[in-house]
Each structure stands twice: as structure tokens, then as C-alpha cells.
Write a structure and sequence with these properties.
By secondary structure, the protein is an alpha+beta fold. 23% of the residues lie in helices and 28% in strands. The chain is built from 6 helices and 10 strands, in the order E-H-E-E-E-H-E-E-H-E-E-H-E-E-H-H. It is globular.
Length: 247
């Protein structure tokens, strides 16, 4: 999805295994079942706490690099010639502080840099995105989307409040890594009778440090369980099996 993201990577030199996984993920996408779950820190809070982002995407080849541009209304010919692909991403805000957010992303299609481009479309670029974040402009506190052709890649520009929280100067932002992490990945079942497995990758240290500085929390099932284990258990007197206790 994005070569600069952190997290899980599947590697294999077995062609039958690769084909098996590709077919599994193709079936997942056809059924609208997310096979991958990403976490991202965004520099802006999305207007809606959850939703779907749908648009056509096209890859443009430049001399220096390849860029992905959105195509709002692709023609049937563009789609048939595979010049443009329809893409979709589900998102959900997991936590937010001020104007920053921790966002869960589940792509329902596969396209290079899909998540980065989709988040710019809702004016919430990923922290450390030095390619597509320039497409989000701001005038007098109002955010707006710039045409892709007039917003070439550049070092991400952060406002003073965010720089202060991150303990950075704008001159240091070019060293800021991309805060997009492949957190969970669905694996096909080993046998027809078994269920699918979810593989989880912990957040890298730089990502955890950013969450701490921005006072954002990623609540997982594991942290929920640890929290419930620390909670004091109420003392309950024994009751007979026929008694219903209402707490």
C-alpha cells in the first residue's frame, strides 16, 4: 500500500504460497472484508468520526517520481483501460486531542499510496507525509483541497502548536517519519475447517513517542484486558443457583 509505512510485511519465495495469499486477499476485497488494518496519526481531525472515502485513483509517471492523483468521475473507458481504478477506504477516529487524531484505516481496495491520498481528500494528512500533504492548503484557518498538479511534493508544513507539542522546529520536520503503521493483517486459514488468523504488529518506538507527546491512546483488546485485570473486583456473597443477581 505504501512502501514508507511501518508494520507487517509478508515475504515468501514459494509461488504456490504467494498465489494462495493473493487469491485469499482478492476474495476478501470482493466480499468487502478488510484484510488489513492501519493506524495513522493525522495533523487534522476529520470532520466525521468515521466513514468511507471513495474515489478513482490514477498513477502518473514523472521523471523524478510516480505520483497518485484522484479522479473524481472516471470515464468507463478509463476504467476499462485500467488507467484509473476505483478505490475505497474505511476510517474511524480512535482518539483525538485538539486538531490531531489517531485514525484506524481499512482499505477495501489496493492501490499505491491509497491511504495517504484518501486522507488528504478529507483534509487530514498523515503526519510525516512529505509527498501528498502539500495538497491541503489553509487560509485564515480554513482548510481546502488544492489541485494535485498545483501542489508538488514538499516537506510537510506543521503549525506552531503542533510543532511545540512534538518539540520540533519546522527546519527539522523533513526528518519526521511517516506515521502510518500496518497494525493488523488477516491471514488465510491453514485448513478448510480452521478460521482465519489475525497477525498484529506493535507500534514502533517513534510512533509510540508521538502518541505520548500528542496525548493520544491506542486502546487494543490486550490493553482493555490488562485494565480490567487491574480493576478491584467487588466482594459478592455466595448465592444459590436459582437466584438472579442484578448488578
Amino acid at each position: 500500500m505504501c512502501r514508507e509505512s511501518s508494520g507487517l510485511v509478508l515475504l515468501s519465495d514459494c509461488q504456490s504460497t504467494i498465489r494462495h495469499f493473493q487469491e485469499f486477499y482478492a476474495r476478501c476485497r470482493k466480499a468487502g472484508r478488510p484484510e488489513a488494518t492501519y493506524c495513522a496519526v493525522t495533523t487534522r481531525l476529520p470532520a466525521d468520526s468515521e466513514g468511507e472515502i471513495s474515489t478513482g485513483l490514477k498513477l502518473i509517471h514523472n521523471e523524478d517520481s510516480d505520483l497518485v492523483v484522484p479522479v473524481a468521475s472516471p470515464s468507463r473507458r478509463n476504467l476499462q483501460m485500467k488507467e484509473v481504478k476505483k478505490t475505497k477506504t474505511r476510517y474511524k477516529v480512535l482518539d483525538s486531542q485538539d486538531q490531531c487524531a489517531l485514525v484506524q484505516l481499512q482499505p477495501l481496495t489496493a492501490f499505491p499510496c491509497q491511504l495517504l491520498v484518501h486522507l488528504t481528500l478529507i483534509l487530514s494528512p498523515v503526519l510525516g507525509d512529505h509527498v501528498y500533504s502539500s495538497r491541503v492548503g489553509e487560509v485564515l484557518g480554513e482548510l481546502f483541497l488544492l489541485p494535485a498538479e498545483s501542489a508538488p511534493p514538499r516537506t510537510q508544513v506543521l503549525d506552531k502548536a503542533l510543532l511545540c507539542k512534538l518539540r520540533l522546529k519546522q527546519q527539522q520536520v523533513h526528518r519526521l517519519p511517516l506515521h502510518l503503521h500496518l497494525h493488523q493483517l488477516l491471514l488465510p486459514a491453514a485448513t478448510s475447517s480452521a478460521s482465519s488468523t489475525v497477525l498484529t504488529a506493535p507500534l514502533p518506538p517513534f510512533f509510540q513517542q508521538t502518541l505520548s507527546l500528542l496525548r493520544l491512546r491506542l486502546v487494543t483488546e490486550e490493553t482493555k484486558q490488562r485494565h480490567s485485570e487491574r480493576l478491584p473486583q467487588p466482594n459478592r456473597s455466595p448465592v444459590c443457583p436459582s437466584t438472579v443477581e442484578i448488578v
